[in-house]
């Protein structure tokens, strides 16, 4: 019987690096959608189709009382109250009606303790939240059939564009699902935000840990004693809520903390 070898932190890092290609493609798609849609709406209606997104959200919230509506949302920044109140209304309304809400949030947005607290509160309301290390545009995929993306331009932090083309929505959803599968659950986020400089000893210890160095080899490379190196590893495991070095390495790659 064939068995599948467990994914190592090194393998996970390769997957994450490959995923960056998909992220770049997603951003490019969003930029093209924004340019095309804005050109069309400007000539036809004198402005972006923000009203179409509002109508889309209102319709789904009405349906949420009778069936399970699924929303997959990726936010470029947090909080979203001022930037995209319509999306906040969407995920809040769906949670009230027991809808399925998945939210992706970049790690850098949660460095602020107040932001982290508000996201944890949302999670307590049954939102499924995962954290990733990428730079993604704000995107919403609704029931796998409709979408909304942040426009690319001067007011991109405020403007949403409705996406109705089925092929484009499915492509956006495929990218979203891939990123979701490699993101870290909010519940597994470290107790501390791990705000160390890239050249700090802790960051270098984490990188060597993920690369599979032995304690002796890593300590020698860093100019540390083996005992000191192991103390750093133990502290990192504690901060990352990891029960093993393997788990710490995987979570580090999920959060983009183990870059070469």
TrEMBL record:
InterPro entries: Sig_transdc_resp-reg_C-effctor, Tscrpt_reg_LuxR_C, WH-like_DNA-bd_sf. It comes from the Bacteria. One of its GO terms (biological process) is regulation of DNA-templated transcription. Residues 203-252 form the HTH luxR-type domain. Transmembrane segments: none annotated. GO terms for molecular function: DNA binding. This is Regulatory LuxR family protein.
